[in-house]
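Continuing the series of single-chain predictions for the mutant panel. This is the parent chain; the variants come on the following pages.
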Amino acid sequence: MLVSKIIVVLIILNVQTIVSRASIVELASDEIDDFVKTLDTRVIYFETKDAQTKYPLFIEEYTQSAHSLGSYGVQFGKVNCSTENHKYCSEPSDPSLFVFRDEKLQRSFPIKKLNNEHSIVANILHRFLLKDELIVVQTEDDLKKILVDSKGKENIILTNVKEIGMKDHRNLLEVAFAYGDSFKFYLSTKLPKDMYGASSKLKAFLCKEKDCDVRHYDNEFRVISLASFIQSLTLPQA
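Parent structure:
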């Protein structure tokens, strides 16, 4: 299972950087129901003249997000509100992205908060596809309880990021997808980085077979680098 997930992540990275670019589906109002009639996640941008004026570069970020999430089965659509009449062209008042699953609207996100590829990809992955793979923990007491409960059961990865929806958050999600069977992943924006002996953005607590020994990682936060570090933790320790 772990090997297959790692292979999937490598394929995703390859697809994102080389070929198989997912396209945005241009939708008429009467095509929306069929587009969202699926168990997979669908994202729709109702593009208004106001949105084009306020966020002229957004469509590029939206297009790149479609490329990145296509390998996860997420499809992106766009409705041109200059030619189509739909209620989401006028509500809410702020231009937004609408996320559907199983024909139902799950949530809308204001573009002013999800205005770049990393924030779009991170939020879609975390909230709809990988919500069980990465859990937010914000207090030292909660972390201590997690470590106590994990002794003899599972290994823990704790990562500090400046803000939800940034590039580090996105990269961590992709790694959590690959290694979720071997580690339980937690994310924090508030816990201090200098806990447990050293300052680091990522800490691995080896609680399954050891007394929660900690390993620190503070190098570049690219998917391949993170995966290499976490993979090294699965090897026999000297």
